[in-house]
Amino acid sequence: MALLVIFTGARFMESWADAPLSGHYLIDTTPNGFITDETFYGWLTTAFKPLSKKRQQGAKRLLLLDGHTTHVTMEAVQFCNEKEIILFLTPPYLTHLTQPLDVGVFGPWKDYYIEAVDTSFRTGCTDFDKVELLSILDSIRKKTLKESTIKHAWANAGLNPYNPSLVIEKLRERVAPLTPPAPESPQGPMATPYTANGLRELTEHIYDLSGNEEFSKALDKLTRGAAAIATANKLLQKSLNETRAAHQRRQELKRAAKRFIPTAGVVRLVKARQMIRTKQEKREKEANKRLENQLQRDMQKQARKAENEERRRAKQLVRFERIMEQSRKQIARGFALNEKEGKMELQNA
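Structure (tokenized):
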């Protein structure tokens, strides 16, 4: 069955589609992160109806639900009646005993989730956001939703095989008087301290033991505790430096523009990825068009620049020819004047 993830928000971010998940996963956004009438109806029509049809053996299908108001809207009930889907609601306030997910799935899921989050922080994650969650979601699902776990949950809920006495006996145990647990013995003051508070308490205890034969033992405990705290602080400082470096790398990866796709309700990842590819192709076409226009503008600019340069050279050539012509005329006049003066000197002689 396709898993539906509900995030708080109003937009489907494109980065979610890059998560290592199969295309059958579903994602929806709601203002508060809770399921809504539209979200459940979208899951019912998009996921449950087509996927359960493939494994249907009889004329009808059974959908086991709790009594949340989003599960019994007029649209959902009408759709189930038309598609011959039987809605079976568990008794109120008893989902922890009668719903298989509560009985035997959510517990292991929580354990694997905590383990995955702890691993993420140990490897440098300082901001466990939606992208981080989607990156570990599939591994948690594969570890949790195993066939043996699912069958065990249905059996413990008394549903398959049908055994209502399991639930009835648990209810009887809950109403039986409880024996108060024995009080836990407090940790003695001579325990080795591994925190600052423990170290302070042991120090006060040492002052009380001054001059007593237990003084040396307490002092030894104090020394070992202080050494342990110093070692822990050194390791924490090293881990903090590694965490800061990893956080800086993660921030660099997240500096990309936050793009989103327009959606309306529950979206299957395979469809979201198709929409993103379409947007990317459109963006690439627009970028290529802008680049082509820019190249054309650059070519036109270069052409105008070359044309202006040619005009400038032509003007310089014309100016040079004019100067040369003027120089020739001046030289010719000079020669003529010299020749005239020479003739006059000959005549006078």
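Residues 269-348 form the longest helix (80 residues). The beta strands are 4-8, 12-13, 26-30, 61-65, 85-89, 260-261, 267-268.
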